[in-house]
Amino acid sequence: MEAALQTDIQHCYHCGDTCNEGPIVAHEKVFCCDGCKTVYELLEENNLCTYYTLEQNPGITGKQPVTESRFAYLDDAGVEAQLISFRNDSICKLTFYVPQMHCSSCIWLLENLFKLNPGISASTVNFLRKEVSVTYLHQQTSLRDVVQLLARIGYEPAITLADTDGKKATKPNRDIIFKLGIAGFCFGNVMLLAFPDYLAGAGIQQTYGQFFSYLSLLLSLPVLGYSARGFFTAAWQGVRQRIINIDMPISLGLAALFIMSVYHIVFRNGAGYLDSFTGLVFFMLIGKYFQQKTYDTLSFDRDYTSYFPVSITVIKERGEEVSVAVRNLKTGDRIRIRNQELVPADAILLRGQAMIDYSFVSGESEPVEKVVGEVIYAGGRQVGESIELEVVKEVSQGYLTQLWNNTIFSKNEAQGIDTYANVAAKWFILVTFLVAAGALLYWVPRDTDMAMKAFTSVLIIACPCALSLSTPFVHGNTLRIFGKNKFYLKNTAVVETLSKIDTVVFDKTGTLTEPSAAELVYTGKALTPAQQQSIKSVLRHSTHPLSQRIFQSMAGQVQAVQQFQEFAGKGLVGEVSGQLVRIGSAAYVGVPADKDALKTTVYVSLDGMVLGFYTFYNVYRPGLKAILHDLRDKQLSVLSGDNNHEAARLRELLGEEAELNFSQSPVQKLEYVQHLKSENRHVLMVGDGLNDAGALRQSDVGIALTNSITNFSPSCDAILDASAFDKLSQFIGFSKKSMNIILASFAVSLVYNVVGLTFAVQGLFSPIVSAILMPISSLSVILFATLAVKFSAKRAGL
Amino acid sequence: MYIIFLLIGFSVSVAACFLGAFLWAVKSGQYDDDYTPAVRVLFDNEVSGTKQPEPKK
After folding, report:
1. What ipTM describes this predicted complex?
2. Does A215 touch chain B (CB under 8 A)?
3. Fold held by A515-619
């Protein structure tokens, strides 16, 4: 332990952060802050130190203390009832979403909650969904106690407005697994019964043939009626909408196969093609299952309700503070917003120094200072002291929430009309009918019996199962490869839309720029180390985000500061070893404002002499230049909610042809994308904030960029982890490649169809040919699709 | 050879039992989370009353 204390960089025993501001040593361990120490003490007291032995420094930093009064709304019976999924006389059950969970220590601790609160009878973790299902005895503890306990140990569950809106998470869809299980069972047994027919010939067939055939027929019924139902209903929908889709030739083939088999069994004493029939359904369901890969932890359909909190502190007439559900907030209510809390409704500032961080909702890069009497729009996050506001509009009427009233959010996208598979299906049906009709015409004058056989055989063999398998497997594999590279698609259809993109629209703040970083440039007289120390010492006492950024960029020790004062909207003053340090706006230190007023600048003066100023520039994401270079064959645009002080730098990055639009409202962004689409462009929108939500939804492919995939991201088609942003052009390129692979596997399946059709038109098609050809074609297409995608991913370096 | 009827009857009903077991397992949610149980099984049961030894550096 001594050795650990002596090393230069000390890591917190609880959370693993480096201890910058003087480590706290307690119980022979080092902690970065009181929060971490408190959690450790709580766990140690309850004999839960296994938490620290399973993983190194598993904890979640306790630097931001939790104000427990915030959970008061959970005592409200109405809120409680909406959150709880089951309740009886003694127990309550509910599921929390805990995005902080990240390792096996977390699982262990969250499943041992009963040791911390005896009222909790069980807690079960679903790690992939980042959920904890808690069962507690409501006579011994309350919902609020449970949530407070979770918050105290660092795992504050994310309870948002969406949870109380009655939009309960839908049950996991297990339909496809049921269908697959039943199809597999029937396929196996039918194949077993069909074997004697193929191998032993007439002997066994005479004795048992009837029995085997009827048993097979019995076993195929659930496949026809349940497992294959999806194909038939999809084909029927296509008929009703007058669209030819891939399910039509499939249903046609399956129906022909089944009817032929029944005919053979009942009237001809034959065996039929039931093994092929069940096998086909089984293989195609595997394809569907493979395509259905979803990212459970990610949600692609979030709106503002999952961003807004459930409750807010309302100040009543006599000054008492009550926690009220955001939904019940009325015009005229006085609310209190603390540091890092969200303003849930448009409101007027009554008291306090408001610094509102709008970066997520409007795209403005720096927090905005508001003075008493100004309106603060919903969605902004307060940075700094707690403020009092008066609500002017109800939550659903706010400036931001109005965006969701746009029709674009209520209509469902018409999907997959001209996908490759459906285009191929059109040709497929045409060719199939031509060949079938040709066979019919050829055989009718010669042999009517043979004519019927050839006609139905063509329909059976032409069943484009291989065609329908290649798309799900290529897309499914592409989806997985993207997922490995931290690019998560909503579904496989996005791969195809992505490959057709010809216009790329970027949001600026948070998308092209790094939201947490700003480049600092100091202009003026060079500062001596002593002067730097004085400035740093004064800045330390300010919570203003700009002060914090300058503070972090400076080296050196801090010294004691006397007579520190902060003037809202102006600047700071303080005395360091006899020297008067003033930091703030140009007007505050007494110099004429810079010509370029759009830039964010902070002036510094020592003992009344202005030394210089700091200018903040956006920091663009690493690799941005390379991506933009790779995307030069597409039209590029930037839509920014911010002002145009970065226009020159953006122009340089994006080139002459790019369109740059500044000071765009969320609705303007939406309309811009709409306008592009009306010009028949395929638009890819990359954004990160709520202000992009409309544009993301309107575009063909909307990608939400996020620094942590478990954080809130607006509704979109794909979520891209910010660390993989430099691969964006590779992703687009790879989606094109996978479309080529689909075409290639269409060619492979075409070979089988030609072979099969030559048998079919000659009337040589028999159950045994079918039993060999069908599985081989299906399996080889699956194999080809999978290997080709893996191979080209390796070559593309993904 | 008529025993074959009986045997096939048996084999199909045994297979049907397994199908039933599979469907029950899916329905009861056993296939919903395929990660956490694999981690959970590795946690040791604690010996009650004794403190876990601290990792020495």
Report:
1. 0.80
2. yes
3. Calcium-transporting ATPase, cytoplasmic domain N (3.40.1110)
